TrEMBL record:
It comes from the Bacteria. PANTHER family: COA-BINDING DOMAIN-CONTAINING PROTEIN, CYTOPLASMIC PROTEIN-RELATED. This is CoA-binding protein. Pfam families: CoA_binding_2. Gene3D superfamilies: NAD(P)-binding Rossmann-like Domain. SUPFAM superfamilies: NAD(P)-binding Rossmann-fold domains. It comes from Aquipuribacter nitratireducens. Residues 22-109 form the CoA-binding domain.
Length: 168
């Protein structure tokens, strides 16, 4: 089963101010589906989070031992602690299992975040029923940059680069 089209979506996620509040209270992030390939979104997001955010970032992928000089854990339950936010970079069909693994951690996880292109309403409803906040089809890097001065609220740059000519 694949993700529904935008027109078929019925679940509504948190608005901008709620997403901002989620990011402000987050201290630890687990990146599930971390890649060691610089061209992959998880690598790019992790690089950004490590260099720009205050978060402690842990990587999860059973097939990699180290990325960016940091250990990569084989599963969420192997992490050195319980993350506040689980950021998921996995295929649509893997999402129910990632949620199961997240819920098995017990108390502590507050947010289940599915990256751009990931949408699974059944998973979202199950996560919410278990007390988690859910964000789907949003990039953690873009949202963090938006709320911390790197991007305008509408999602574009704040004007550091400008196409207008300066007046003499």
């Amino acid at each position: 089963m694949s993700a529904p089209t935008r027109e078929e979506r019925t679940w509504r996620g948190p608005g901008a101010l709620e997403r901002q509040a989620i990011l402000r209270r987050t201290r630890t992030v687990a990146v599930v589906g971390m890649s060691d390939k610089p061209s992959r979104a998880s690598y790019f997001v992790a690089t950004y989070l490590l260099s720009t955010s205050p978060y402690e970032v842990w990587f999860v992928n059973p097939n990699i031992g180290e990325v960016l000089g940091r250990p990569v854990y084989p599963s969420l339950d192997a992490l050195p602690g319980v993350p506040d936010l689980v950021d998921v970079f996995r295929r649509h069909e893997d999402l129910p299992g990632v949620l199961d693994e997240t819920l098995a951690l017990g108390e502590g996880v507050r947010t289940f975040w599915l990256q751009l292109g990931l949408w699974h309403e059944d998973v979202a409803r199950r996560a919410e029923a278990a007390g988690l906040q859910v964000v789907m089809d949003r990039c953690l890097k873009i949202e963090h940059a938006r709320f911390h001065g790197g991007l305008h609220l509408a999602g574009f740059d704040t004007g550091v680069i400008d196409s207008r000519r300066r007046r003499a």
